[in-house]
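Long-time lurker, finally posting.

We've been working with Fatty acid desaturase domain-containing protein (Lactuca sativa) and I want a structural starting point before designing mutants. I don't trust myself to interpret raw outputs, so I'm hoping someone here can both generate the structure tokens and explain anything notable. Sequence follows.
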Amino acid sequence: MEIEAHLYIPIKQIKVDKSEPPMALIAPPPAAEFFPKLIHRSKSVPCHLYTEQRRVIQTKTSIKTTHHHHLLKRHALRIVNAVVEGGGQARILLSDVVVKRPKEVYKGRKWNAKDLTTAGVVVAMHLLCGFAPFTFSWGALSVAVALYVVTGLLGITLSFHRNLSHKSFKLPKWLEYTFAYCGVHALQCGEPNNVGDLEKQPFYRFLRRTYVAHPVTLALVLYALGGFPFIVWGMGVRIVWVYHITWLVNSACHVWGQQAWDTGDLSRNNWWVGILAFGEGWHNNHHAFEYSAKHGLEWWQIDMTWYMIRFLEIIGVAADVKLPTQTHIQRMTFPPKT
Ligand SMILES: [Zn+2]
Ligand SMILES: [Zn+2]
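Top reply, 14 upvotes:
Generated this for you. Predicted structure of Fatty acid desaturase domain-containing protein:
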């Protein structure tokens, strides 16, 4: 069995006995629903890993998690059991979600070069934001908003998430690459999830190798156009804004909102994240129908990314656009209350 190592970075290091039946990740015993939260917060969680026979494969490993835990289920990996250490309990404000706080996620953690770079970039961008009040102009704000749409909608949600990670639709290569290029400028320090697949294409290998050069070039162009204020707003404010919205999808959308589908997890549809994150806030819909290019399934569920995909489909550019199937819809519908 191949483990999709790129979904959970440190899993690569876990040696899995191939004679064992498909197994084993993580889920804390006290409150099963607490786990998705951690996953979606991309934190490293110390836990014990068990196989289906409860044989410990590895203890106190640090599992870095991503948004795409639900994909793991598809890869014969079953969440079995794990003990998450540390922490008292806390109820989240205005929500029925109780979390058990893991202690000392950062203390004692081994920081590798990539962690440090990521942390450095995140801190630097936040520092840039400190200059925002003193450098405000309508021009600078417009640059930030324009780049928010281009990198966030076209780059992250349309390209990285729906096109490349979930393969919800197909685009001609030149356009696929163009949108993926927009995503690089969001500086999320991560690639779309099916990296192995993309690694075969020279274009993505090129992007990976030259990753830093692109945002730096953009920063220089912005500086040439509008000086320091354009850097503050076009890079700092805009990038931090997109960071926080991304984090909202992975946290708020598991805490606040409605569940329209019987997904058996904590994902929710959250209208205000839906607006800010170009449709990604309809997260319960997304958990129910991961492959769907459309996340806002009801007419009133605003989904800017979907409108763009639909437009590309109408003009004959996007093809194989996937939508929830009728049988799948029936399967995900809540049983009638008795
Ligand atoms: Zn989720
Ligand atoms: Zn997804």
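Before you design anything, note these points.
The radius of gyration is 21 Å.
The chain is about 45% helix and 5% strand.
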